[in-house]
Automatic annotation (TrEMBL):
Protein name: Winged helix DNA-binding domain-containing protein
A Pfam family annotated for this UniProt entry: AlkZ-like
GO MF term set: DNA binding
PANTHER family attached to this UniProt entry: LMO0824 PROTEIN, WINGED HELIX DNA-BINDING DOMAIN-CONTAINING PROTEIN
InterPro entries: AlkZ-like
Domain of life: Bacteria
Natural source organism: Kitasatospora nipponensis
Keywords, sorted A to Z: DNA-binding
Lineage: Bacteria, Bacillati, Actinomycetota, Actinomycetes, Kitasatosporales
Amino acid sequence: MTSQPPFISDEQRRARLGGRHLLDPARRVDTVEQVADGVVVLHASDPATVYLSAGARLTDPSAAEVERALYEDVTLVKLLSMRRTLFAVTEELAPYVSSGAARAIAVKERAALVKHLGQFAEGWDEPRLARTEQRVLAALAARGEATTAELSELVPALRDTMLMAAGKPYEARQSVGSRLLRLLASDGHVRRCRPRGSWLSTSYPWALVDPWPEVPVREAKAELVRRYLAAYGPATVEDVKWWTGWTLGDTRTALADLDARPVRLAGPDGGEAGGASALVLPGDEDEVALPASWAALLPALDPTMMGWRGRDWYLRPQDVPLLFDRAGNPGPTLWWNGRVVGGWAQRADGELVWRLLADLGAQRAEAEAAIAAQAGRLAAWLGEVRVTPRFRTPLERELTK
């Protein structure tokens, strides 16, 4: 008789989440590189997310620690990659992200840009785009770093505009420069430098980067999934496919290359019956120790919140309309022992406010005290900084009224 795959309960999944994602205070780390490795990638679509996600996991949180890695040591780089999303990844992982995800995105971005230029920007074709790219790279080589606006003074073609969302109520014109620089970043030619202004600013210069080591695509994909399962496993095939943004075929190939092992997840009632099949790395089937109780305030688009497609084991479906915007972007969330239990926001005067959505029963007082302590910790290192998420959600808006 064939034995069933090991069973991993929701409680065990939450225990793994707390420890491996460095949210249990006993597992916090000293550097932002360690944070990024712990969760594989840090979401960077909103500039604040990298800082707040790191701060929640650092022993001594500060914006300076994140800036050191991003702009001084350049051991953390931003890449448009999985799911066409901007991520901050360690310098060591960047070649794998580039080969396994970013370059394919860049190919699609280039094709889309060429098509759009041909339709909505007069005098543009693929050869002209290539010539303009070379001029931009030459300008950066001579200047060192420059914003898109500054490069437009040196390469006037970047000032040309094209119509976006033609015929829609929100149609607008976008500069060729803004799209072209993003494309060059996806191709691994340029990187974002320290922003002009505060660490929340989206006005930043660009600089050239040295080429990363070449990694075969299949090897890169396997390494990305290995790191994902190490941090997020157990995960379903659908979770892996969603997180990477790959085809089902590429996802299954990477899992097979790792010899990922099947496990059973909890069913709708939390028991062993009726649960989905999932995968872990070889040797990761055993139970882990349960951490002490912990609380966390995580920012919009935090990698833990965005780690799985199937979220019912840590997020109540009835809370989704309050905690997500219409495009599916999560806002700031409260966590208690591996579950999302509410949301938080920062008001204009700097006060951090929060609301519990879940009924915590006998644990309520303990949870409220722990959440208040974490709110105080966050407020202390933010100081005079005011953070408004780029993607605002119903609860976050309500809390800031």
